[in-house]
Write a structure and sequence with these properties.
By secondary structure, the protein is an all-alpha fold. It is 79% helix and 0% strand. The protein contains eleven helices and no strands. Helix 5 runs antiparallel to helix 6 and helix 9 packs antiparallel against helix 10. It is globular, with a radius of gyration of 21 Å.
């Protein structure tokens, strides 16, 4: 997907990815078998894989290095608003049993707006990338070989490898929590009436403030100390997030949610 975005029109590819994501989500709501859910979930992953590299590359060209962190932070609001709203859709919207469709309504209602967004991006967003005038055209084979060499050089940099490993660990922990937190509270606090709106508030408030704050801080530090200072912020805030992650597990509701919000605030500087 990254290769396609480097070579072709990014807004068009992004709109297609969002369309694939949204249609797959809607079709999950009307699926009739388990294998259909698996295939459509793969469609969601395929469409989702477009958004981050496409948006990041567009932001890198539209915004200057001095403001790029905040721009990435604002873009990443979508992650925390979407993740936070997922609890309302997945739990409370399902319980509402809209038109008797139960859990299916959550997928249909959640996926429908994406179709409108995909169409809007397709017709309104223009790719700021311009081909260099007078540049010598390369044949496709030479272009692919050159691209692969550049990718290999970039990938084998120690900083890139460390970022890949840390991102994998970070996402493993985050998604493990996201996929099991409701089960966790039901298992260990069966006698407590846990209001899952707390998870929505923690994600939206803690995550959104954290990611924009991280972008703001890294933009300031980069002006004084250079690009590598962004890694300082990531390392420092992820270290600060660790005790709050542990306290989220050890504290009882509602105090664990306070710790969770602080964890999101510190950890989500990552995306900026």
């Amino acid at each position: 997907m990254g290769f396609a975005l480097d070579k072709f029109n990014r807004p068009i590819i992004m709109s297609v990815g969002i369309m694939v994501f949204s249609i797959s989500c809607i079709l999950m709501g009307i699926s009739n078998s388990f294998w259909q859910l698996i295939v459509l979930r793969m469609g969601i992953a395929l469409g989702e894989a477009v958004c981050r590299p496409a948006a990041s590359s567009l932001i890198a060209e539209v915004f200057s290095p001095d403001n790029r962190g905040v721009a990435n932070g604002i873009f990443s609001w979508g992650v925390y608003f979407g993740y936070g709203m997922a609890y309302i859709f997945g739990i409370y919207l399902t319980d509402a049993d809209i038109l008797g469709y139960g859990w299916r309504a959550s997928y249909v209602i959640g996926g429908a707006p994406g179709i409108l967004i995909a169409v809007a991006i397709f017709f309104t967003v223009r790719d700021p990338r311009k081909k260099e005038e007078g540049a010598k055209s390369e044949d496709s084979k030479t272009a692919v070989v050159s691209y692969l060499k550049d990718s290999k050089t970039a990938f084998w940099q120690p900083a890139m490898i460390l970022l890949l490993v840390s991102a994998s660990v970070r996402q493993l922990a985050g998604l493990s929590w996201a996929n099991n937190n409701v089960n966790y509270f039901e298992e260990y606090y069966p006698d407590k009436d846990v209001d899952y709106y707390w998870l929505t508030v923690c994600s939206i408030v803690g995550g959104s403030f954290g990611v924009v704050s991280g972008g703001f801080i890294t933009d300031i530090l980069q002006k004084k100390f250079g690009l590598h200072s962004r890694l300082w912020v990531q390392s420092g805030f992820l270290t600060l997030a660790t005790p709050f992650a542990a306290l989220t597990i050890y504290l009882e509701p509602p105090y664990c949610f306070i710790s969770l919000a602080l964890y999101y605030f510190c950890a989500e500087t990552w995306f900026a």
